[in-house]
Amino acid sequence: MSRSAPPPLALSRAALLKKCVQVIDGFDPKKTTIDAWVQDAEVLKDKNIGEVEYKFIHQVVYGCNRYQKFLKLFVTSFFYQSATCAIRSEQTVYTVLAYLLFFRLEELGLDEFEALIQSGAATLTALHAMMQYAMNVEELNRWVKVEWCKLYDKTYIEEEVIGKLQALADELRPMLEDLELKATGTLVTSDGTTLKAIPKKLPKPVAPNITKPKPRLIPEPEAISREIKAKPVPEHIINGTSLAEVEREKAQRREQHRQEIASKYTHEVFLETAKRNDGTEIEELTRKVEEERMKECTFRPVAAKPYVPPTEEACVRQNVASVLREDALLKKKQANEYNALKRYEEDLHDASDYYRWQHEAKLKDQEEEEKRVQQRIVEMQLAREEAMEAFEGMVRRKHILAENHREEIAKGIEVRDQEQEALLQGKQELVKQFIGERENARLEEAKIFAARQENVEKIKEEKKAEKERKEREDAHEMERKKELIRQIRALERVPVERFTKFDPAEQPCQGLLEEMSLAELRERLSLEKGKRVKELEEKKERQLQQKHEKQLEYSEKAETLAKIRDIAKQESSQRHQVMKDKKKEAEERQLRHREQCVVEASEKIAQKKKERRDEELRLKRELKEISTKKQFLAANAEMLEAKAHGAQQAGLEREAMIRQRRTLVDQKKLNDIKMKDANVRREDRARSQDAYETMKVAVTQRIERAKADDEALKRSILQATTSAKAAHLRSTARSASRRPNETTQMSVSV
Asked: Are residues 626 and 682 in the same domain?
């Protein structure tokens, strides 16, 4: 596979992978298809996405959805196998790269795949672990091959997926070594040696040329005065004051100070709490709050304020949008009127007759609908009466059935008690039989407990060893992470390169056409800004002129619309008055029809009540006759009961006989089916054995014929080879005999 330079793209590889991830995460197969989703996705409406990028994203999304189960098994096993390296938020990136690695690597090319791997869309350590896991046949066989074979053919998995990737292992090795060196900082060669990455040469720091500050002047020290002045002698020492006088003066000063403090706080302090009552005010406030809160819950709400119609028309200030909207509506109405007149001129008639007929038909339908509603009301009232009567009859029948059911339940309870008593006696006897076997159960429980204890100790030892191994691995991993952190901090301490200042009046001298310096560029920019300002001023003047013209046009339209609005107002008031009159007539007509329906309903209800009373009287007479007949038939009740019991018993015996006969027939059918199945299996087994023997004979004959043909072919090849060798020897001898004759002839000629 040739390693060619990747084609230039409008998007970077990392951005391309990010777009693929966003489209895959946002796709919902229950709502739309892949093609429709890729067409309508907001992510792909970026102007930087070209035809190549769009086609790549489309194919990647389609492939990841097609091989979803395959890729999900691979990525899930990778997360489980490399839990310390893999990042859960980069799961979709791993899915996209796994799809490209397993199914599109030959079409994509190694260089392009390496560019996608090292684009920075995912962590290099995780990608390095994923590539190592994908290239390790033993790990794939251990973790995912069995699950893959459940989805696809085993030959396809071994040859087309794993085998094809292993065939490219030599070509992928440089990329894997480069990825390992960038991810871990070290490289393990085939002979076991470890190579570290060549550290970059760090530039030596150079001290900046900073102007040295001038030395500060030291201020002169302040002169410290050493003159000692003595304090005057106290008067009590001079005058000879005694200790009693000093105490008396202290007491006088203390009393004077107390009087001054008392004079400051002569006013009385009044607190707001003293003004409170003994709870009556709180109760009054509580009552007012409850009344205000429960005001909306009463059935006597506050009456609404009466409607006061306005005496003056409202002054509405119109803006440009309202004027234009009203003007457009007016033009639309004028166009409709023009079209109506034009049709009348062309056809010599209009649709007024049709509209009149339509209005009359609607009124007629409305009247019929009102009559139907009133008829339904009457029918509903009648149905309600019938339903109530049916409900009362159903209640009476249920009372009789309930009484009979209670008697049956009482008999059933008595039978159940007898059965439970017999079952209890049987259980008691069974308990007495098995009471002596309790000790055996305790001994077995003790043995099982001892075995479980031994198993627990063994599991504890295994967990302890596993914990020690895990601690060692964690310590090793922590040392590796600390080493990586030290390397990263060393890289962060590298000083930033500084560049020298350039002259703005100097041209860059890059060999391009029309080069100019920064100063010249700024001068041209100022000229362009001046032109732009002048153009803006001219444009503002033109816009102000257009605005003034539009204002004049809007004012004319507003005056015209005001006149039209007044005319429409007069027509609307007349039309409303006509509608009110028609509505009043319709209400009166509805009221008369409703009164007529009520009268009809009351008559029908009275007729139904009369019929129901007659029915009740008839039912009472029938019940009385039935009770009389029951009294006459009570004498033969025992004979009828015995006869009914005998018929029931005969029916039960007949049913049991029929059930037994049906069971025997079904069993015979099952036996016949089993015999037929056994015969069929025996015949199939004999037929397969005969076919196998026939196949063996045919294969033996075919092998013998193949061996004979092979021997004949070998003999023909041997004969051809022998004849070829003999011909070659004859030709060699003939040429050798001819060569001495030619030599003799040459010597004679000389």
From this structure: no
Residue among 179, 199, 195 nearest 124 (CA): 179
Query: Are 585 and 473 within one domain?
Result: no
Per DSSP, the three-state class of 188 is strand
Asked which of 155, 189, 223 is the last residue of a domain, the reply is 189
- Residue 91 makes CB contacts below 8 A (sequence gap 6+) with 75, 79
- Per DSSP, 50 falls in state -
Residue 297 belongs to a domain: no
Instruction: With respect to residue 117, please indicate whether it lies within any of the assigned structural domains.
Output: yes
Q: Which residue range forms the structural domain that includes residue 151?
A: 13-189
Secondary structure of residue 194 in the 3-state scheme: strand
Half-sphere exposure at residue 193, Cβ-oriented, CA atoms within 13 angstroms? 3
- Domain boundary residue among 633, 668, 702? 633
CA 646, 649, 655, 656 torsion-angle sign: negative
Total domains in the chain come to: 4
The 3-state DSSP class for residue 582 equals: helix
**Does one domain contain both 543 and 604?**
yes
Rg, C-alpha atoms of the chain: 57
Is the pTM here over 0.70, yes or no?
Answer: no
Same domain, 471 and 582: no
41 and 181 belong to one structural domain = yes
Q: What is the rounded distance in angstroms from the CA atom of residue 74 to the CA atom of residue 68?
A: 10
* 40-98 confidence digits (pLDDT tens): 888 888 777 888 888 888 899 889 988 999 999 899 988 888 888 888 888 888 999 99
Contact predicate 57/16, CB 8 Å = yes
SS3 assignment for 468-519: HHHHHHHHHHHHHHHHHHHHHHHHHCCCCCCCCCCCCCCCCCCCCCCCCCHH
The verdict on 581 and 469 lying in the same domain is no
Among 199, 197, 200, 204, which Cα is nearest to 497's?
A: 204
Contact 57, 23 (CB under 8 A): yes
Tell me, yes or no, whether 20 and 117 share the same domain: yes
Asked whether residue 92 falls in the same domain as residue 134, the answer is yes
> Mean pLDDT, to the nearest integer, of 448-452?
88
Report the alpha-carbon distance of residue 390 to residue 410 in Å, rounded. Answer: 30
Torsional class of 192: left (φ above 0), alpha (ψ -120 to 50), beta (otherwise): left
Neighbours of 37 (CB within 10 A): 19
Predicted local distance difference test score (pLDDT) of residue 234: 63
